[in-house]
From TrEMBL:
Oligomer status and interactors: Interacts with KCNMA1 tetramer. There are probably 4 molecules of KCMNB per KCNMA1 tetramer.
UniProt entry tagged with the keyword Hydrolase: no
Gene Ontology terms for molecular function: calcium-activated potassium channel activity; potassium channel regulator activity
InterPro entries for the chain: K_chnl_Ca-activ_BK_bsu (IPR003930)
Cellular compartments per GO CC: voltage-gated potassium channel complex
Transmembrane segments: 33-55, 183-205
Post-translational modification: N-glycosylated.
Protein name (Swiss-Prot/TrEMBL): Calcium-activated potassium channel subunit beta
Family of this protein: Belongs to the KCNMB (TC 8.A.14.1) family.
Length: 252
């Protein structure tokens, strides 16, 4: 038995506990925490943007129920309405667009009402079916309105889906809903999921740091205890080796 095979002190055993670089570990944890906070900040920004562009108009708009409508009369008003458009950074122009009116009959109540494309069209101009994008080409605006008029004229009394407000006394009916419940669900679900994911990442990193600190304290105590007992063990083993060696020489 070679007594040199035993470590001379507890210092060599202490080096076995430091396999990784603490600086690299700290950098990885810091970058992970930053990722979690970035996700949380992005989710708050999503809540703000979606809340102002989708949730707020949806809450302010009247709640509508689905029904069926039948086109009665379509007409393009003789008087065109004014609109404004931009043609550059510092360029603004004035134009006009045709107002298309679509009169429909609600099947379930027999009430006559003006049809609009969606909720936004009602808020912009309650007299017209829709408000086209303003520009200088009057022929293009007129052709678009004529195409829509022809579409409803070819319905020939065929019922189609529409949405009305049962709590409102206004005679406004919309063709499609711009914001439905599924869109509201996605506006709330994905930002909430991102916020929860960021919070979980930050919480897991904090928990990992806490457990790492506890592990480091425990390993320090263990190293101190082992380092105190190791010289005594080595000394005892060396004495046994010396006694065996001396006995072997005496027999010879």
């Amino acid at each position: 038995m070679d007594w040199k095979s035993f470590p001379a002190s507890g210092k060599k055993r202490e080096t076995d506990y430091s396999d990784g670089d603490p600086l690299d570990v700290h950098k990885r944890l810091s970058s992970t925490v930053l990722l979690g906070f970035a996700m949380m900040g992005f989710s708050v920004l999503m809540f703000f943007l979606l809340g102002t562009t989708i949730l707020k108009p949806f809450m302010l708009s009247a709640q509508r129920e689905e029904s069926t409508c039948t086109a009665i009369h379509t007409d393009i008003m003789d008087r065109w309405l004014d609109c404004a458009f931009t043609c550059g950074v510092h360029c603004r122009g004035q134009g006009k667009y045709p107002c298309l009116q679509v009169l429909v009959n609600l099947t379930h109540s027999g009430q006559k009402a003006l049809l609009h494309y969606n909720e936004e069209a009602v808020q912009i101009n309650p007299k017209c079916f829709y408000t086209p994008k303003c520009h200088q080409d009057r022929n293009d605006l007129l052709n678009s309105a004529l195409d829509i008029k022809e579409f409803f004229d070819h319905k020939n009394g065929t019922p189609f889906s529409c949405f009305y407000s049962p709590d409102s006394q206004s005679e406004d009916v919309i063709l499609i809903k711009k914001y439905d419940q599924m869109a509201i669900f996605h506006c709330l679900f994905w930002p909430s999921l991102t916020l929860l994911g960021g919070a979980l990442i930050v919480g897991m990193v904090r928990l990992t740091q806490h457990l790492s600190l506890l592990c480091e304290k425990y390993s320090t105590v263990v190293r101190d205890e082992v380092g105190g007992k190791l010289p005594y063990i080595e000394q005892h083993q060396f004495k046994l080796w010396s006694m065996r060696r001396s006995k072997g020489r005496s027999r010879e």
